[in-house]
Each structure stands twice: as structure tokens, then as C-alpha cells.
Write a structure and sequence with these properties.
By secondary structure, this protein is an all-alpha fold. The chain has one domain: Four Helix Bundle (Hemerythrin (Met), subunit A). It is built from 8 helices and 2 strands. It has a two-stranded antiparallel sheet with strand order 1-2. The chain starts with a helix and ends with a helix.
Length: about 230
């Protein structure tokens, strides 16, 4: 039974590697799908381990190593082969920085949350950053009007990298309150979200994940300003 949840982790790393190969072959949409599928398997491994009572330190370490591949290297290579290669060494630097900062984010997470699941994330989690980057690239490829804004995409990659190692807090959805009083509200919200995803899959996903990114950033700026005023 201890092997079972680790199979999901292995599948996540495997899909990440296949995504890198697809990116190198210019199959960007296919690479994006592999990265998003990696996210599904990554979400399942921990839950399966807890349901079967087979959590282990090996599983936690294996999960982090798989995340470096699936959500660090894979989206970074997708960005490089689709956009970053236009900037030469600078593009390679930004892509490498994303992977390194993602690894630092994972190491910090492992140290800070040994046995308990956090109610908030310190810095955007690397799976979340991977989804943000992947959806930005898909939107860039989908809409020709975005051609010519490559430098803005590169700078956004740099900001995303720093947000992973920042102290900005992002909400965790692992502990959603599903009491009867909130159940109808959650259900209605999910129906609306899935309706948007069905009608406009790329646009709505990009909008939602970017809103999540900006929420933490704006809340961090607001908290900083309030703290400064209190000191004055």
C-alpha cells in the first residue's frame, strides 16, 4: 500500500518529462496539457496517502523532487521554447531562475510544514506558479494580438519567480469550510466556475489563476502599507 500513492507522484514526474520533450518539439499545447495533468496526479498522491494511512517521509521527499520536474523544469522549458529563446542568454537566465526559486520554495515548504497542512501558503506554491505560467503561455499562443509583448511575458516570469520565494501569503483551499450553512454557496460558486471553464477554458482559467496571483500580491502590499502607518 505504501507504493500506491507514490505511483501518482511518479506519474506526475513522468508527465513533466514528456511535457519537456513536447516543448522541445514545438508541441506547446500538448506540453501544456501534460503539465496540467501532472497537477491532477500531484493533487491525488497526498490525498491517497492520507486516505490509506500510508504517509511517509520518503513520499514527501519524492513528491518535492517530482514537483521540481513537473512544475519547475517543464513549464520553464515550455516558456523557453515558445517565448524565452528570443532573448538568448537573458531568456535562459530567467527560465533557470524560475526553476531554482521553485526548488527553494519547495525546500522551505518542507522545513516549515513537517506534519500539518497550512491554512495559508507563504509565497505562491510551485504548482500554482506552474499553472499561472502555463496558462499565460496558452493565452499568448491563442491570441495573435499578444505578439510583440514578449518582453512583458519575460518580466512577468521574473516576478512570478520572486513571488514563490516571497513572504506574501496566499490562501490554501485544503481546509474549505463545508458546513451546511456554506454548502449551497460553495456549490453555486463551483457551478458558475465550471460553466465558465466549459465555455471559455483557456480564458477563464487564465483569469482565475491570475486573479489568485494578484490577490496575494495586493493583499501583501495593503498589509505592508497598514503596518507602516501603525509605526508612524
Amino acid at each position: 500500500m505504501y507504493i500506491f500513492p507514490n505511483l501518482f507522484t511518479a506519474a506526475s514526474a513522468f508527465l513533466g518529462m514528456i511535457g519537456i520533450i513536447a516543448s522541445s518539439n514545438g508541441q506547446f499545447e500538448k506540453a501544456a496539457i501534460y503539465i496540467l495533468l501532472s497537477l491532477v496526479f500531484d493533487g491525488l498522491d497526498g490525498r491517497v496517502a492520507r486516505l490509506t494511512n500510508t504517509t511517509s517521509k520518503f513520499g514527501a521527499e519524492f513528491d518535492s523532487l517530482a514537483d521540481v520536474i513537473a512544475f519547475g523544469a517543464a513549464p520553464s522549458m515550455l516558456f523557453y521554447f515558445s517565448i524565452g529563446h528570443q532573448f538568448g542568454k537573458l531568456g535562459a537566465l530567467f527560465c533557470a531562475m524560475y526553476v531554482v526559486f521553485g526548488a527553494i520554495r519547495l525546500a522551505r515548504f518542507n522545513v516549515m510544514s513537517i506534519s500539518t497542512e497550512p491554512s495559508v501558503f507563504i509565497g505562491i506554491p510551485i504548482p500554482g506558479a506552474a499553472v499561472v505560467l502555463t496558462m499565460w503561455i496558452l493565452t499568448y499562443l491563442e491570441y495573435p494580438v499578444m505578439q510583440g509583448y514578449e518582453i512583458l511575458m519575460l518580466l512577468s516570469l521574473g516576478v512570478l519567480s520572486f513571488l514563490m520565494v516571497s513572504n506574501i501569503r496566499y490562501p490554501s483551499f485544503k481546509k474549505i469550510d463545508l458546513k451546511k450553512a456554506n454548502l449551497i454557496k460553495v456549490l453555486i460558486a463551483l457551478i458558475l466556475v465550471f460553466s465558465l471553464l466549459y465555455l471559455f477554458p483557456i480564458e477563464s482559467t487564465t483569469l482565475l489563476i491570475t486573479a489568485y496571483l494578484l490577490y496575494g500580491l495586493l493583499r501583501g502590499v495593503y498589509t505592508f502599507i497598514v503596518a507602516k502607518r501603525k509605526k508612524i
